[in-house]
Amino acid sequence: MSSVRNLGSYVREFRINAKLTQGELAKMVAISEETLSAIERNKRPITQSVLAALLTALKIEPTQARAFTNLYSNPQLPDYDEPIPHEMSALEAISTPAFYQDVRTWRVTAANAAARQAVPGLGPGNTIVEWLLLDPVSREVIVEWEQFAHNFVYSLKVMPTGFMAQDVYESIIRACSRAPGWHDMWNNQPENLGAMRFLTHIDPITRATRQYHITSFTLQFPRSGWWLWMVSPVVGEDDSSEPLGDG
């Protein structure tokens, strides 16, 4: 039976956010309180079936739960550092902002032309959390900046042990801890912890605003391992593309 290690900190945070005791959650998923305690302390791996039950009990929506389970149960780690021309051609063919991210380090390895224009500074070598906290441009182009920044910082705090190399993890924290508001974001759980599916973007040139969906993929060919992140316009009733006033 396959299992997932080092997810206990996430389970604990989601449980606390749901205002459940260990005993209450353990009863909901038919495991002992001792087992849940060991899981939350990363002393016991979680079977796929128990993780699925936990995420359901914690009211994590099905699509997010599946993505969460797949991401941490079977990560495909690349053994290379830069995209090849084939991969770059595919990235540049995407008309909306998109970039590759290294699973091992969270660092962006390449951004397409649309991303370079829409989110200046979020390029190779940078991480999203560092860009959010250290680059003033991020506040100017993302309406929900505070919500995004808080979620990324707190996700870094509760990241499963061993998912990122310790030296990389410590380097990101050292850099970001200089940012105003870091300690509040680090020490206080966001109201809505978890992946964000939408953002409202402000065009850095025209100042027009538009809502976008956020989507992630894992590359399979020609090589596997990169995360591909992209945004696509929300269309229909929720579509909004209006200039943002100076006030």
Question: What is this structure's SSE topology?
Answer:
Elements: E1 3-4, H1 8-17, H2 22-28, H3 33-40, E2 46-47, H4 48-57, H5 62-73, H6 85-92, E3 98-102, E4 108-111, H7 113-118, H8 128-134, H9 137-141, H10 145-157, H11 166-176, H12 182-187, E5 198-202, E6 208-218, E7 226-233, E8 241-243
Antiparallel strand pairs: 1-2, 3-4, 3-7, 5-6, 6-7, 6-8
Helix pairs in contact: 2-3, 4-5, 8-10
Description:
The chain has 247 residues and is α+β, with helices and mostly antiparallel strands. The chain folds into two domains: 71 residues, 434 Repressor (Amino-terminal Domain); 159 residues, Beta-Lactamase (2-Layer Sandwich), CATH 3.30.450. Strand 3 and strand 4 form a beta hairpin. The N and C termini lie far apart (58 Å).
Given the helix and strand composition, which structural class is it?
Answer: alpha+beta
CATH-level-2 architecture of the largest domain: 2-Layer Sandwich
Radius of gyration: 19 Å
Average pLDDT confidence is 83
CATH class of the largest domain: Alpha Beta
Write down the secondary-structure element order: EHHHEHHHEEHHHHHHEEEE
Task: Please estimate the helix content.
Answer: 40-55%
CATH topology of the largest domain: Beta-Lactamase
| Beta-strand content estimate | 15-25%
Number of helices: 12
- First-last Cα distance: 58 Å
- Uncertain ranges: 238-247
Tally of extended strands? 8
Overall outline: globular
Main beta-sheet strand count, sense and barrel state = 6 strands, antiparallel
Integer tally of domains: 2
